[in-house]
Fold each of these.
Amino acid sequence: MADPRFFERAGPFTLGELAERCGARLADPAMAERKADDVATLDQAGPGQLTFLDNPKYKDAFAQTKAGACILHAKHVDLAPAGVILLLSPKPYLSYARAAQLFYPAPQMPAGIHPSAVVDPAARLGEGVSVAAQAVIEAGAEIGAGTSIGAGTVVGRSVVLGKDCRVGPQVTLSHCLIGDRVLLHPGVRIGQDGFGFAPDPAGHVKVPQLGRVQIGNDCEIGANSTIDRGAGPDTVIGPGCWIDNLVQIGHNVTMGRGCIVIAQAGVAGSTQLGDFVVLAAQSGVAGHLKIGTGARLGAKSGVMNDIPAGESHFGIPAAPVKQYFRQVATLRRLAQKKGADNE
């Protein structure tokens, strides 16, 4: 179970309620009034706890589980050990996530302004806003109702934050307009200068970055990630995008709905990502490219050309996955042949 020093648990909940609220159904409706008091992994769950099976490679752990109830796909029912109550879901991991949120809802910060915080009189704070110790809210900033601002965070002049946002400690926000229900983890930097300059042997000349950053509703930005403001047009992060830790988004980049950018990835200036693009860890995308809707980029890949919608690319330079692995296989055969020739 989660350490109660750090995580406050709700519940217990009946299995009928959990099934209804997490998009599942009970295999045996007679078990609807049985209760679960927590969630846990297959190998750690006990009789009063709810677990899940999504990947069948964990079937051996499932066979040994002591959990009282388990969320799983109907096709895996035959793997269930005796005595475990089954909640059937077409998407077990999604259903588990919803159940876990019920047991462990996001903590709510108490409304109010810490005595050490500095809030300019010209800033506008909505009802129920929380401002933690040593945060700074500059003139003209607007913070929506129910939003919390972490310790040491700076909300710059005229920045707009929507309702019910959670901003972690040591975040810096400038030149940005942020929607509702956005989560910014510690150390996020949004709206700083884009990397724009005119090269000159006598000394590079900075190009003023005159755009903003716009972030849609329901986005999440991971710890120590940075999003540069635009040079003239804005940098735009569409609604529902999730950006992992240590990600760099360059100036003028536009991202559609629901994109996922994983740790240490980078997107260079003026590149356009369609809806639901996935960039895996440590991938890099050059500037002024177009990555089509639903495209996927493998870990450590380097993109130097446009990628059509729906395609998966991998490697340096990135190529369609099948083509990339054919290239790898060809090189392996050539290396083996050369080795055999030299024997």
Amino acid sequence: MKIELIPLLKLQRDLYDVSNAQKRFDLYLKTMLNTDASDADLLPMVAMNPMGKEHIPKMLDTLLAINAETEAAHTIATVADSFREDEDSDTFKLGLVVVDDLMGGWTNRYTCEFDHRFRVEHNLKRRWLTVMLWTSETPSVQKVREETLVTLYRTRYIRQHGVAHTLQEMLRQEGYAMAMSDCQQPTLESEDIAYTWEVISSHLSTQDHPTIMACLFGDRAAHLLGYTPQGLSDRAGLAAALAQYRSTVE
């Protein structure tokens, strides 16, 4: 598997130089879609909010100032040899996109993040990978590197094991991707990790979406989405998956 980084951050920033909201949205569509507007040529930009507030261009300015795409390219280069050893020789395009989960109603963090992690068939078919950088998180070189690696390792896992359908399959996928990327978050105290496994162990084979969301993201997400809470901390399932995978490779 080969990775080609496609610069998208300046395209996103340039949209915010257009002060008129309708003209900006029209330019966004023209920039993102193909010539007959039947599909997105720049697939990662589907996730951005072209109608957001001033915090979005400010974050884009920060990312451009720290050369985020150069850092992503360097990160790709550090693992390129390993990924070339995979059996296939497909080339994927990868782009960074700012996703607005901080202000406005454009994006629900939990549902968008779930789709980004697990509903990836269309993106993989199109040979596009998206690195999401959330407006609620402080932009940094470390965050760019981490999110780039998670995207790469997640893609490798899915191409080797298939798309995850059950909670257990999702936990294995994300535990692998986060641990291989040396992610430090999400994390919980050991007692909370043990409790989380007690709660979710009876749901590992489920494909019920509300139950999966509550187990992965915790009670805060469950309440927000109208699902039955499971008595879990924020992102408990993901924290448990990361802790378990780390314990198997240490």
